[in-house]
Amino acid sequence: MSICCASGRDTKAGRVVCDGHLRLIEVLRVNIAQLKNLPARCIGDNRSITIVVRLDNQDIYQSTSTVRDSICCIGDDFVHEISSNFSQLHFIISENSRIPRPIGRVSVKKRDIVKHSGEDRWLRVTPISKQNDVSGQICVDLHYDDETSSIALRVVDHSGLNFHEPVDLYLLVTLQGCGRMESKKLKIGSGKESDETLFMECEPRDNHDGQRPQIRLSLWHDVLGGFNSYFHGQVRILLDDTTMRPKSDSSGPQWYYLKPRMSVDEAEETTGENADPSRLGELRLRLFYTADHVLPLEMYKPLQINLINSLSSRPFCASPAGILEYLPSIDLVTIARPLMKIFVQANSIRPLLRILCAQDIVKCQDVNTLFRSQTLASKIIYEQMKFLGHQYLVISLKPVIDMIYNERKCCEVDPSKLKHGGSLESNKLNLIVYGEVAFSRVVDSNHRCPTSLREMFADLRDVVAMHFPGREDVQRLALSSFIVMRFFAAAIMNPRLFGLKREQPDPVVARTLVLVSKILQRLSNCVVSGHTLNVKEPWLAPVMQRFTDETHRLAMLKFLDRISMTEADLSISGESLSILRDGFFIERKMREKRRYLKNLISQRRRYVVLTETEICWQKSKADTEPKGRIQLQEVNHIEPVEDAKNVFRIATSTCEIQLQAPSMIEMNEWIVQIQKQRKRQLMIALRTTEPSELFEIDTERELETIHMALYEHAETLKHWKNALEGTEIPEGQPPLPRALQDQLNECENPEEAKMCFYSTIQDILHGTLLIEKAHRDVVNTFMSQIRSGKGTRELPIGDDNYLLLKSRFQKSLD
């Protein structure tokens, strides 16, 4: 998860390379399935197991706790966008107690992630060793001084080391292969560079007693005033026999990857093969690695213009945007999400949806199934609700979701699933309470709905009214198909998918969520259809009787009517403020870094609350008056504090607070959420209603996704173009879709429509070819830079991951 500064700078995902002409966006999807064969000492009591996922030394995810057993079913799945280069992915397995105790870890090298992407694998758990738990890079200037016949070395910089407080670093330099072995210490100052240049005498000669001359650099820092030392990694630099200069054939400071003490890969792999795989257990993983190559916006400009101009093309199905839906075996989600963002950014999403919805209505043969099928229109509306309405969803549903998670009351009303000793009457009352709370949170939320979604629902209702005049029931049916069925009810059933909860629900909670979602769906269907409630499950009928009275019916109708009104009240009253996030932190005073004792004494535990307009903190959750508060509109800095573990600061022009989070993951999540809410408050203060200004959209990335969809179907488009010229489509190739042919033939001038379709395909193929040529040119330039510039911060010596990048680039261009 990338962290951007609150200053409003334009930050986009990925790493910028090739002088800004290429952006690499690496995405890692991780599925943690099971853990088995834990040591016997780890099984049998009530303690649970937690897994922390780490990229080198950066924590990116913490799994839900699971009860220890011979086989622990975890079932966590998450996606992480990689913001910087990394070497290994670690899974740290710990048992939960007052002080978490590590059991072991699984480490996967980047090249193995790429090699085995998508594979279901069991990997053995290995002991955690500080000697091998290294990360980071070091930059050294190494050259041979002819005047003194010595090797001169100094440290220029370092980065990514595994410490948070200032430490006393030193480099242990060992010279081998010059007829003797000599070691010296080089102290590294607080400015990340050595205080002096180290000289080691060694004259060039043809034969160094059969030993290859080399320099070994080991990075350490003293602990407890020199009573102990902590190892940070080592580097081995081979020297030329005759010149005593590094064999990398480069001059000036060079960056090197720090390696573990046992840095010989073959030795590690041999040891791993002979080790007992069940000694510390095995972890079942499924890792997915993808990398997008995004060019500057000007390379996609013709594609962007053609997509937006599709709105004026007649017929629409012959336009670049209209053709996408008819590509064979196309994943509609793959194109719906980027297409939605492209048109939102261009402030043209409303006319696009009106066209698509009108097409769906014409195709629909049964009004009761209107917008229930999976079409491009329904997918774009769904993606727009998730994208623009996430904050609305959090405010509306998170309180009831949290209540269900925390209370864990049984709501099972199906006699066939009732556990022994359970009470149907008690469960029924529990379910009614949760159902009423969820219903109230939904129908009372219309004033919180974003203006952009109100406009979308108003347009949807207007298009339906044009085709079904006077049928308000059909209009409400269309609205409920999205706002209730695909948004609120779906989010209640699967809160993780909609970003409402991180942890998986246990079976009791999961069943309650399903039943509450059923209540909302059945009630909505009953209200919009005007028919008597027909409950498929007889055991649910006693509960639904509570929700089918006139009061509930009128409340749902009022909600559907108001949610589709374009008038938007952007002001937020004090009564309507909701808690977006809360948690406990340590408040830190701003003192000198070295005064550890005073820092410790001045720390205070605080309960911190983020609302829509402010962040406030107090001594405990029960306190009614906060110790302090900061208005989000006044915040000008939200950023991590350097050399402090999990600490970030929130500052205005007049005050500042530093908070220490329980983990790096939680710190990052708080920073991102505060930044997003601060931006919304600034836009509201400016009375800005354009969605493209309220939400960050990576236009180049979305256009690259559309380009790749067209590129993958380029052969199909060629055959369709040839078919319009009279050439028969080869056997085995997808024919022109019948639905597309029918739409072209039903136009007032079918021949003109086919010519428009033919011209669109030509433009698509030509534009795709130009973008691919730009990809090829920039990749060739980038690979040239790699070959000539290895040893830079971006491509340190000892990092062989660039070879994966090279092979993947070449494969994609074949």
Automatic annotation (TrEMBL):
Domain of life according to the entry = Eukaryota
Species the sequence originates in: Ascaris suum (Pig roundworm)
| Keywords, alphabetical | GTPase activation
| Family annotation (PROSITE patterns) | C2, PH_DOMAIN, RAS_GTPASE_ACTIV_2
Q: Where is the Ras-GAP domain?
A: 331-525
- Give TM regions: none
Sorted alphabetically, which Gene3D superfamilies does this protein's record hold? C2 domain, GTPase Activation - p120gap, domain 1, Pleckstrin-homology domain (PH domain)/Phosphotyrosine-binding domain (PTB)
Report domain PH positions: 578-679
Q: What is this protein called?
A: Ras GTPase-activating protein gap-1
Alphabetically, the GO molecular function entries are:
GTPase activator activity
Instruction: Note one Pfam family from the annotation.
Output: RasGAP
Q: Per the database record, which ranges form the C2 domain?
A: 134-256
